[in-house]
Amino acid sequence: MMEPKYQNLVEYFRAQMRKDPDMASAVAAIRTLLEFLKRDKGETILGLRESLKWATDCLTGEDSSVAVSSGGELFLRFISLTSLEHQDLSRCKKVMEERGELFLEKISMSRTKVAKLCHTFIKDGAKILTHSYSRVVLRVLEKAAAEKKRFSVYVTESQPDSAGRQMAEALRKLNVPVTVVLDAAVGYVLEKVDLVIVGAEGVVESGGIINKIGTYQMAVCSKAHNKPFYVVAESFKFVRLYPLNQQDVPDKFKYKADTLKTVQNLSEEHPMIDYTPPSLITLLFTDLGVLTPSAVSDELIKLYL
Amino acid sequence: MPGPDKETDLTERIEAFLFDLNRGGSGAGPLRGSAETARETTALLRRITAQARWSSAGDLMEIIRNEGRRMTAAQPSETTVGNMIRRVLKIIREEYARSRGSSEEADQQESLHKLLTSGGVSDENFRQPFAALKPNVIEAINELLTELEGTTDNIAMQALEHIHSNEVIMTIGRSRTVEAFLKDAARKRKFHVIVAECAPFCQGHEMATSLSKAGIETTVITDAAIFAVMSRVNKVIIGTQTVLANGGLRAVNGTHTLALAAKHHSTPLIVCAPMFKLSPQVRRLSFLSDFYRYCEILSKVNVHCPVFDYVPPELITLFISNIGGHAPSYIYRLMSELYHPEDHEL
Predict the structure, then answer these.
(1) A103 contacts on B by Cβ (under 8 Å)
(2) Most buried one in A114, B85, B123, B245, CB count within 10 A?
(3) S-adenosyl-L-methionine: is it a keyword of this entry (chain B) (predicted)?
(4) A285 CB within 8 Å of a chain B CB
(5) pLDDT higher than threshold 60 for residue B285
């Protein structure tokens, strides 16, 4: 009885990701959970929460990124907050569905808001360094290019999946001069660069970020060269994690979902993400405004406590 | 007819204020302190609220925003004007929310919480007229004016906690806030002050004269001697022109040098800045283009004379404002209390 439900859920999630490759994985996860909510036939709010928790676990089993996990947690929090206001289940579900749609509408605007805030920090003639493929950074650079600013971009290749090349392709389509550099060449290229902009898969409570492996290195080098290190992220990526060092990041985020399921000895695998502490980040651009890393925990507290 | 007369009187006053702002910037008019500018701006905004024709909060905010844009365009380096306008806009929003009966928390910043729980598209067009709005707003602006009048005293009151006997304190240029701060401490403690003269305007000389008249042992040094003397200094206390949203400063030329020297010697750097200097701007990589005034003395020589410096937040230890002491990382929080995010861009 569980199997078809699981299949449907995962299929829906995959279909969402396929339909719109530009959509953030967290948004697809929240959309899937909302659909699940609509189809759920539970009788009690507690039962609803249980089945939503189960659904979130399925989704994280499919795509182990931090963003999906934070999107799921946010949705669960949304359910708790709404269920506190209305005791009756059917009324509650109706309100949840309405608010859920509204919420999805708002967060689909978040990338535009971030781009609006960030593009003013890119001056004419600037040289930007970025890491791997980030749709938010791409949107920011699109906006800057649309404002007729001239700038050039260095992108790291970002092994093991060469995602940087995808970013370079996308930038070439915008007629932005772009150079792909080796991951090892970050220190070499930093003296030519004016600012560093990266995306984030997750923003943690301390104000640090979790992003593709190689970001921490870039941050340390930027600090050494005194270049500003900017992070662009939507607010639904804020996650209740407080890692103190690289080892503290849970294994379930470090490796891809299929690796976690199949491989026995994780110590032989290469992690896909790393943690950048807040002391290396200059500013975070989110749809909630331009934040200093210390402001991030404030936002999380407002939501969760 | 009282109507048109009031309006022409109002327009005259606004024009006079704009003219003064413009003159003050080019160095032709009398040099005014930022506290004075803040008070005059607020008084003018109160007059606009009282005399201009408006029916709803939305209209008033539009009028103030328009006048605000003209005022900031007249003198872009005087950020207190823009700050006061944003404070008044926030006051109007709060009074409107209070009149509508909704809780004050409801219409504040965007937050994750608000994203999740808001029930519908916010209908904040501020169009509903309320009779009690005008007197409420004027009263709130009066409270703001009272706060502005007391800022220097509030800051000076905290001096005894920070300055101890037989200390050597360094400062730069001339700041009325720091002057009051040091004079207040001098009533009970004996300490030594070193003032960097801050060329080419050499305002440090006036500061030193004023401090020595109050009985404080003062020494004037050139800007180049800052690093050399820093090893003997216990604390550095400075004023600033503006406090930026990331906790950094836009302060008089030479402050960044002072801050770096203090960091090198691990000397605490204390900034005395009243709340009206807090601005929602963040420093951009503008390569100092806003910070310059040019002086051309010979036809073949351009002398660049930057008036302001940017000091990054990492070099600052403590901010002392009229509401107490704060760390630079806390400035974002104070900002969210003083201004509404939609008013960051006027």
Answers:
(1) 115-116
(2) A114
(3) no
(4) no
(5) no
What is the per-residue pLDDT across A155-186, written as a single tens digit (0 to 9) for each? 999 988 899 999 999 999 999 999 999 999 99
Give the CA angle between residues B7, B9, B11 to the nearest 5°.
Answer: 70
- Segment A111-129 mean pLDDT: 91
- Whether B136 and B174 share a structural domain: no
Predicted ipTM of the assembly: 0.77
The per-residue pLDDT for A114 is 92
C-alpha span between A151 and B257 (Å, rounded)? 31
Q: pLDDT band at A129, cuts 50/70/90?
A: very high
The continuous run of DSSP H or E covering B147 comes out as helix B133-157
Domain boundaries, chain A: 4-108, 114-304
* Placement of tokens 């390569």 in the chain: B287
pLDDT-based confidence at A54, cuts 50/70/90? confident
Residues B22-40 have pLDDT tens digits of 776 554 445 567 888 899 8
Q: Do A292 and B246 touch (CB under 8 A)?
A: yes
Distance, CA of B43 to CA of A154 (rounded, Å)? 51
pLDDT digits (tens, 9 = 90+) for B158-216: 999 999 999 999 999 999 999 999 999 999 999 999 999 988 888 999 999 999 999 99
State how far the Cα of A232 lies from the Cα of A122, in Å rounded to an integer.
13
Q: Kindly report the backbone phi and psi dihedral angles of residue B140, in degrees, each rounded to the nearest multiple of 5, phi listed first.
A: -65, -40
**Could you tell me which CATH class the domain A4-108 is placed in?**
mainly alpha
Domain A114-304 CATH assignment equals 3.40.50.300: no
Q: Give A123's contacts in chain B (Cβ within 8 Å).
A: 284-287
Indicate whether B221 and B334 sit together in one domain: yes
Residue B134 DSSP code: H
Residues 6+ apart with CB under 8 A from A2: none
The DSSP element (H or E) to which B344 belongs, if any, is: none
Claim to verify: residue B144 and residue B278 sit in the same structural domain: no
On whether both B261 and B334 belong to a single domain, the answer is yes
Contact list, B285 vs chain A (CB under 8 Å): 121, 123, 126, 194-195, 228
Q: Please identify, among B148, B163, B180, the residue that sits at the C-terminal boundary of a domain.
A: B148
Higher pLDDT, A58 or B295: A58
State the DSSP string of B85-126.
Answer: HHHHHHHHHHHHHHHHT--TTTTS---HHHHHH--S------
Judging by beta carbons within 10 Å of its beta carbon (0-12, 13-18, 19+), is residue B143 exposed, middle or buried? exposed
β strands within chain B, DSSP E? 168-172, 192-196, 217-221, 235-238, 242-243, 249-252, 269-272, 292-298, 301-306, 308-311, 318-321, 324-326
* pTM of structure: 0.85
C-alpha–C-alpha distance, residues A259 and B336, integer Å: 44
Query: What's the pLDDT score for residue B219?
Result: 96
Comparing CA positions, the residue from B233, B212, B224 lying closest to residue B169 is B233
Q: How many CB atoms lie within 10 A of CB B256?
A: 16
Nearest-neighbour CA in chain A from B46: distance (Å): 30
DSSP A72-115: HHHHHHHHHHHHHH--SHHHHHHHHHHHHHHHHHHHHTHHHHHH
- Name chain B contacts of A121, Cβ cutoff 8 Å: 284-285
